Amino acid sequence: MAVADDKLQSLFDNELPSDEAEVLRRDLSDEDLLKLAALAELSETVRGTVSAEAATHELDLWSSLADKLPQQPSAQVIPLRRKIVRRTTAIVSALALAASLLFALRPGSPGDSNCEIEELEVVGTGATVMKVADDRGNDTTLIWFDHQEEDEWESL
Amino acid sequence: MTATKSDAQSDELRQAEAALVDQARRGDQRAFRTLVERYQRRVFSLALGLLKDPDEARDISQEAFLKAHRHLGSFQGTASFYTWLYRITVNLCIDRKRKVGRGSEVELDERLSHRQVGSPADVLATQKLSFNPQRVAQSSELRKRIFAALDKLSEQHRAVLILREVEGLSYKEIADSMDCPEGTVMSRLFHARRQMQELLSDFAEDAEQEGAE
Q1: Which residue in B28, B77, B141, B209 is a FRET match for A18, CA 20 to 30 A apart?
Q2: Is the CB of residue A45 less than 8 Å away from at least one CB of chain B?
């Protein structure tokens, strides 16, 4: 008895489990063998046609693709420690900048009353020099020290 | 023993490919270039088989790689890279055909593909073709006639046939490439083969008559 065509096709395409394929191969009729031969011939014809036609054309897709691809920087691997240091520095800098801006622009701050502010760097502490205009139009200079107890530094 | 060795080799290939895809995804153009050079011929053959026109096939192949590059981030790696690439290529080819109005046979052929496989009206041929398939490689005239027969299939049938016969994909890989169930792949493949057998037997008869004249 002839094998069903769908089974025959699956056998031809090696899509059956090996034990089922083996059983089926034992039961093949002459007609089945002719069908398998015709499938093989068709397969060879289609593959031969498309491959032979494709082989007649030169192909270098990369040379034209390279210009069209968006340029992306290669991903860099950064050690975790350096990454943390970089991130902390960026955060601290951003906070310092934000604090400076807040200090300079706050309502009623020396910025509003025409005063000039300068930073002083002194060893172990910091100071701010402010020139403030008083009610009579005279300038008064103030120096503000950020006093830090020594044991506070030690605890940091 | 041989099967184990070949399994190990294909595992190695898959891992190497996954590493390349990962590097390309992180912006390494050399890795992407390797992928292009590895698959360009196969993508071009597929597009050529589907579109018939070499210039269009080249355009589509390029577009397929550009699209793959753009969407590498969304490639999840559950299927292989080439299955994903074929899927992009097949979709682009079908879109292209529809845009130029060559997709009119789709509906009719879709009805055909849902007929029962192996029904009495639709059985595999038993007679062989009357021309030697090896001659096909040497004769551009023969190839033209066979491409004309392929062109009579719907895009879906042609795609399944080429993915199987030219690219050697399994039913599962074809189903992944075409986003359809394996049963549909089997059915489409059966009808594509059946139609090609009919078309090529007509062609063989024509060739015989031409020879007699």
Answers
A1: B77
A2: yes
